């Protein structure tokens, strides 16, 4: 017997068949009376006959092992495997030496064990084969769980690093046009199919297919049977138990991936060029896989215990009902996270999503604790998931706490848009804003693109609100260049604008299209406290690569211009902005906020109240750059983003000499 085999053996299983402890009369300190139960751990730890019999069995079959190994096994397994089990009253060597004779009889299972006895060869072989096989299968469960979580993290990193391989430009473009950019089916990616389902791109679908296939394969391979087994009544029940355990472990292994993919402080976002929207899509697919495996684990064990009539007793145990709570929590999350619910009541969705996610984690942990009490390490999957969640939330707090409580100033642009100015902070890319006094749901936060920094603007005109801020001692306000819109309940238009230059720190300029949620409440405010969680740079841009692109054509729809403006203002090569916007007030406000010179720097072609023919416009621009690299950046409504995606893919596929890249700037649901 090797060390690994010994570590997996259960002492209760060493004495079955001819010395089956479940059938044997319990020795009660010299008194013999029969009960149909296992002896308690104290009896195992103190019964001389049992200790001597076990010691002689180990001496006979494990003579190649070191005494230290045998002693460790003796201490950890003689009285059972519970965390608080009593230690044997004597060591392995002491029990062996106390025998005083060479055992030569085998006690029948119907007799009381009164002195050291032999374990029959058939019994030993049966138990050894059973326990060795169980250990081998259980090891495969954990190994396959590690394969799942490691490949789920490593493959995105590896695929992202492949972009640095110096393949010819046309090859890369052709590959992306055929296998990465287009939707898997049809022409929709950002526009939901049946207003419910987000169709993945072909590139996303390839990785989703991998996740599905690897889970199926890992659920189906690596099973062996003891044949016969001392634990299971039949081979089908043995295999069913192994499959159920495998499904449970894989479901546990998927939970850390769930938390990893969902976080905006996601290590994979820092190491890859995949967008947060892509990881959110993967998060939802992994959630479905995780729930299916959890349901499979629960359903199979329900069937197994129903067959052997132990359901009524098992279902009353804590491990059972906490497992049910965990499974139901996971199941409930799926229908409660559909796109329609997320869009109609996002704040409530966020609250119950966090609640049921934590309830599922707690349920999984207690399910394992009450069944195994930290003996086999199944709880490590839950520790990993909780660590990922705590890391992500901790980073949010750090990003937010470093700025403190700031003041946001609200200006009405028109019936659809508002302008938000936050003095005293510098940030770029995306920020998440919390308005703790706006509603009773103070934890709510939403992402917004930072259009510009006050200090960057070249126009020195400012609104009366900025003068009021200065009068109130707001020295931190930067060189603000804001033009009053005249639409904030008439208060600013009545006072007009004055030209001043305010010195100090910078601030943020954000434009928001008001919807039915928290942004609607901003319209009734002129200023309010705000917490800013920053900075989240657009990961789809891959660091500074976009600013180094030789040529950029940017297509924006409405307030989508806020994500594109910083890119164009920081770009030194040729670029052009094509902006479709219905609100003339928004155009005027953006021009006033940026300043005339910086607004012109974007080379904007504005389509106001007229249809923008994206295919024709892109074809014309691409024709000018046949032998040069051209990056297309799009930020706007879902239909616009999907149309640009399909046109870019078609242009690359139809003309091998075209060197196009697509960058999509949008927030995913």
TrEMBL record:
Localization (cell): Membrane
Listed GO MF terms: ferric-chelate reductase activity
SUPFAM superfamilies the UniProt entry points to: Ferredoxin reductase-like, C-terminal NADP-linked domain
Keywords recorded for this protein, A-Z: Ion transport, Membrane, Transmembrane, Transmembrane helix, Transport
Topology of the protein relative to the lipid bilayer: Multi-pass membrane protein
Gene Ontology biological-process annotations: copper ion import; intracellular iron ion homeostasis; iron ion transport
Top-level division of the source organism's lineage: Eukaryota
Pfam families, per database record: Ferric_reduct
CDD domains: NOX_Duox_like_FAD_NADP
Record field: transmembrane: 144-165, 205-223, 282-304, 319-336, 348-368
Chain ranges of the Ferric oxidoreductase domain: 247-364
Keyword Transmembrane: yes
Cellular compartments per GO CC: plasma membrane
Cited InterPro entries: Fe3_Rdtase_TM_dom (IPR013130), Ferric/Cupric_Reductase (IPR051410), FNR_nucleotide-bd (IPR039261)
PANTHER family the record matches: FERRIC REDUCTASE TRANSMEMBRANE COMPONENT 3-RELATED, FERRIC/CUPRIC REDUCTASE TRANSMEMBRANE COMPONENT
Protein name: Ferric oxidoreductase domain-containing protein
Species this chain originates from: Penicillium cinerascens
């Amino acid at each position: 017997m090797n060390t690994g085999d010994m570590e997996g053996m259960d002492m209760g299983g060493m004495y079955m068949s001819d010395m089956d402890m479940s059938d044997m009369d319990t020795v009660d300190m010299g008194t013999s009376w029969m009960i149909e139960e296992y002896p308690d751990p104290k009896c195992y730890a103190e019964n001389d006959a049992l200790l001597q019999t076990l010691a002689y069995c180990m001496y006979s079959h494990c003579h190649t092992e070191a005494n230290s190994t045998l002693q460790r096994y003796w201490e950890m397994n003689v009285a059972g495997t519970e965390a608080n089990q009593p230690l044997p009253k004597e060591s392995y060597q002491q029990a062996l030496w106390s025998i005083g004779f060479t055992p030569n009889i085998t006690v029948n299972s119907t007799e009381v064990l009164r002195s050291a006895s032999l374990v029959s060869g058939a019994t030993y072989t049966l138990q050894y084969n059973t326990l060795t096989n169980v250990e081998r299968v259980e090891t495969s469960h954990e190994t396959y769980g590690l394969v799942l979580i490691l490949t789920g993290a490593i493959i995105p990193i590896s695929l992202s690093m492949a972009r640095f391989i110096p393949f010819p430009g046309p090859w890369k473009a052709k590959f992306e046009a055929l296998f990465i950019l287009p939707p898997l089916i049809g022409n929709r990616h950002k526009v939901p199919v049946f207003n419910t389902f987000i169709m993945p791109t072909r590139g996303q679908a390839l990785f989703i297919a991998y996740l599905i296939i690897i889970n199926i394969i890992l659920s189906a391979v690596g099973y062996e049977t003891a044949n016969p087994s001392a634990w299971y009544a039949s081979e089908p029940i043995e295999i069913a138990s192994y499959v159920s355990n495998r499904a449970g472990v894989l479901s546990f292994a998927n939970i850390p991936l769930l938390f990893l993919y969902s976080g905006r402080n996601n290590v994979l976002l820092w190491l890859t060029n995949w967008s947060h929207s892509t990881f959110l899509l993967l998060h939802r697919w992994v959630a479905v896989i995780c729930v299916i495996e959890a349901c499979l684990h629960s359903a199979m064990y329900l069937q197994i215990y129903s067959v052997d009539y132990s359901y009524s007793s098992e279902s009353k145990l804590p491990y059972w009902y906490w497992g049910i709570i965990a499974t139901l929590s996971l199941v409930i999350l799926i229908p409660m996270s559909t796109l329609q619910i997320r869009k109609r009541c996002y704040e409530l969705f966020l609250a119950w999503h966090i609640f049921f996610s934590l309830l599922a984690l707690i349920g999984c942990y207690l399910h394992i604790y009450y069944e195994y009490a930290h003996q086999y390490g199944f709880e490590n999957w839950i520790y990993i998931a909780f660590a990922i969640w705590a890391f992500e939330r901790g980073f949010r707090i750090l990003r937010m706490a470093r700025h403190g409580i700031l003041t946001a100033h609200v200006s009405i642009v028109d019936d659809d848009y508002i302008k938000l100015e936050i003095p005293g902070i510098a940030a770029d890319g995306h920020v998440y804003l919390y308005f703790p006094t706006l509603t009773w749901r103070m934890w709510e936060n939403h992402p917004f693109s930072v259009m510009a920094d006050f200090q960057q603007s070249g126009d020195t005109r400012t609104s009366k609100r900025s003068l009021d801020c200065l009068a109130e001692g707001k020295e931190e306000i930067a060189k603000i260049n804001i033009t009053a819109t005249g639409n904030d309940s008439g208060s600013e238009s009545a006072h007009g604008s004055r030209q001043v230059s305010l010195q100090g720190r910078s601030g943020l300029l954000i434009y928001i299209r008001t919807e039915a949620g928290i942004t609607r409440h901003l319209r009734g405010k002129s200023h309010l406290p705000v917490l800013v969680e920053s900075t989240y740079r657009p990961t789809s841009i891959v660091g500074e690569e976009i600013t180094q692109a030789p040529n950029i054509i940017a297509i924006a729809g409405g307030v989508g211009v806020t994500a594109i403006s910083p890119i164009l203002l920081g770009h030194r090569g040729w670029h052009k902005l094509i902006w479709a916007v219905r609100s003339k007030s928004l155009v005027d406000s953006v021009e006033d906020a940026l300043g005339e010179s910086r607004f012109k720097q974007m080379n904007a072609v504005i389509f106001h109240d007229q249809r923008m023919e994206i295919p024709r416009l892109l074809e014309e621009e691409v024709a000018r750059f046949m032998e040069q690299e051209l990056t297309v950046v799009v930020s706007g409504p879902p239909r616009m983003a999907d149309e640009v995606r399909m046109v870019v893919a078609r242009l690359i596929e139809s003309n091998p000499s075209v060197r196009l890249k697509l960058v999509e700037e949008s927030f995913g649901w």
